[in-house]
Amino acid sequence: MKKLFAIFTVIGLIAMMPNIALAGSKKAAPLVVVAYTKGLSGLSLWWANLYNDNMLLFTILTGCITPIAGILIGFVTDFLLGLTGIDLTKRELAEH
Amino acid sequence: MEWLYLHMPISGVDLFWPGLVILGLGVGILGGFYGMGGAWMITPGLNILGFPMAFAIGTDIAHIAGKSIVSTIRHAKFGNVDYPLGVAMILGTMVGFEVGAQIVMFLERIGKVDLYLRIIYLILLFFIFTTVLYDYAKLKKKEKFAKEKGEELDKLASGVTWYKTLHKIKIPPVMTFKQAQIRVSIWLPMLVGFTTGVIAGLLGIGGGLIRMPALIYLVGCPTHVAVGTDLFEVMISGLYGTFTYTWKGRTELLAVFIMLIGAGVGAQFGAVATKYFKGMIIRVLFGAAVCIAALSIAQKLIARIYDIGWLDDVSTVTILGGLSVLMIIIVAKAIAGMRKEVQMKKIQQS
User: Is residue B348 part of a domain?
Assistant: First the structure.
């Protein structure tokens, strides 16, 4: 658990590094996109409104949900592959 | 057939969602197998499905982040991820990428940058493809020579061994990278990462296409470890890209989810498939993918220069058809390997 926490802390710090490199470069003016909410309802409407009103929260949620979704799908696939009977912990390291 | 189209709330387009799943699955398998994100395959695919280009790039990067986490965890369980090596390379890659991007800004000011960069990209792909072929031919020669002497070649022996020369550079600190089974100056992976980062920044690509062979031929990683370690780096750059593109408002999370359904499964399968291939065969198949990409880009370039509309379509068919053939080869061999493994297990148990 400690090792996993250390790895993710390092990953987080490294992921921040490009911001330092980019800080010196000239910034281009971003083109603003507005989500069209007419005809939307429920979760889609809430999500589009969040995009229009609170980009910071939208970004944080997207950045967190995406890897979590990936991990969940990965675990389910891992479980299904394990049911086939193949060994998912070992492989032979050979070039030829 | 309306149920086959989903409305994307942010970009406002209606997308053929089965196409997203299939695209995610196919590129997931190839990405998990070759150790790369596959942005060069997905972004044009999303554009073809109807996404505006900026959203195609942002959505692609977000899905790559999700997918590469899956493959990295899978490869890590196999012992294919060398975290210290990955961290050392990515430090160099990030700085190199920004340098590459700044060079592009400078070239833009002197004009015609597009054409020159495409030509550089083609030359690079051609170089990688010929290196793989040369590597294979040299290894076969070594095997034949060893057989004639009545000896057996080491399992990790390689054809091209440029890394042996680079390993002689012992500028401190010198580190042992356990999973990669190498002991080198830390400056080597950082310098290789920086160089691949400059090229990736210059060409506007993710870098996995260049980093994977660089890890094998310049750093000296065994192929399976190069695949896993490269995916670790793709994961980090993907996470950064997700935040940056989403902050710019160019990520469609619904499309990311749908692609991840296919990509998550595909990436796991692709990573497991590496179990059933020798390292040299993974390299040869990688070379084939690079050759297909080069051919497609050459067709697109000629189509653009000479204004031949149909050649542009041929270029799309080349990349999609060629990569589909490779995917079928990988899936077929992996399934055959899995069946053999399960049969052997049953025999041993009985």
Answer: no
In a domain, B350, yes or no: no
In this predicted structure, the answer to whether residue B84 has a pLDDT above a threshold of 90 is yes
Q: Looking at the domain assignment, is residue B138 inside a domain?
A: yes
Q: What percent of chain B has pLDDT over 70?
A: 99
| Residue found under tokens 């002197």 | B110
Beta strands in chain A (DSSP E): none
- Indicate if ipTM > 0.85: no
Region of poorest pLDDT, from B41-50, B128-137, B270-279 = B41-50
What are B2's two structure tokens? 């309306």
The verdict on A6 touching B (C-beta cutoff 8 Å) is no
Question: Smallest Cβ distance to B257: which of A35, A39, A69?
Answer: A69
Please indicate whether, in this complex, the C-beta atoms of B253 and A78 are within 8 angstroms of each other.
Answer: no
Contact A94 B10 (CB under 8 A): no
Q: Where are the domains of chain A?
A: 33-86
Residue A28: helix, strand or coil by DSSP? coil
Note whether residue B349 is domain-resident.
no
- Number of domains chain B contains: 1
Structural domain including B153 reads: 2-343
What is the Cα–Cα distance from B194 to B204, expressed in whole angstroms? Answer: 15
Residue B121 · residue B297 · CB < 8 Å: yes
For residue A26, what pLDDT is reported? 47
